[in-house]
Write a structure and sequence with these properties.
By secondary structure, this protein is α+β, with helices and mostly antiparallel strands. The chain is built from 4 helices and 12 strands; from the N terminus they run ααααββββββββββββ. A hairpin with a 2-residue loop joins strand 7 (120-128) and strand 8 (131-139). It is rod-shaped.
Length: 195
């Protein structure tokens, strides 16, 4: 409504400034540069509305590994794929690649929990665009019990940046690797946009 009043005021001033007895209202209206830019302004306003809506959208995900993974299926530099997705607001997490891609720019918080099986060690990294942001180790090599480690990592992201979890070191005395049986423990990757 205010935009229309503003346009009317500009037109009114323009009409009085440029009017002569020989010019019609339509001719004067067509000459006003503001009138010519109305379609561009509408497009820009719609774009800004869409951007504001995008910023208001909450972004959060929670995914876990659906089953325990034997050591024979794990390798160094492997990106872990948390394939059981329970929450994916904003559709940033891809269970097929194991990667979170930031839908919008902002500060994000990520959590990773990994569980080493009895008599095994698994070291892992939280990676943003191929740059390590945090790392942890679940070292149960000397114990007969599973060992769980959780990392919390704040990461500033620009729209399109990726964050994922990559294995950096493995060692085991037997065939077991990551445990994620959903009864006693689970390996998970989650995150949300703070602001």
């Amino acid at each position: 409504m205010n935009l229309y009043l503003f346009i009317f005021a500009i037109l009114f001033v323009g009409i009085h400034a440029k009017s002569s007895k020989s010019s019609s209202f339509c001719e004067i209206f067509q000459q006003c540069p503001l009138v010519a830019s109305i379609p561009e302004m509408k497009t820009e306003i719609e774009g800004l509305k869409a951007e504001v809506q995008k910023l208001k959208t909450s972004i959060a995900f929670y995914a876990s590994i659906s089953r325990s993974i034997p050591m024979s299926q794990l390798h160094t530099h492997m990106i872990l794929k948390y394939d059981r997705v329970e929450l994916n607001q904003g559709n940033g997490y891809n269970k097929h690649s194991g990667m979170f891609t930031a839908p919008v720019t902002g500060l994000y918080m990520f959590f990773v929990t990994n569980n080493a099986a009895d008599y095994s060690t698994i070291s892992f990294k939280v990676v943003k665009n191929n740059v390590v942001k945090n790392q942890g180790i679940s070292d149960a090599i000397a114990t007969g019990a599973r060992l769980s480690v959780t990392l919390a990592t704040p990461v500033p992201l620009v729209s399109g940046d990726t964050v994922y979890v990559k294995i950096s070191y493995l060692r085991a005395k037997h065939a077991y690797g990551l445990t994620s049986d959903h009864r006693h423990d689970e390996c998970s990757f989650s995150g949300y946009k703070i602001n």
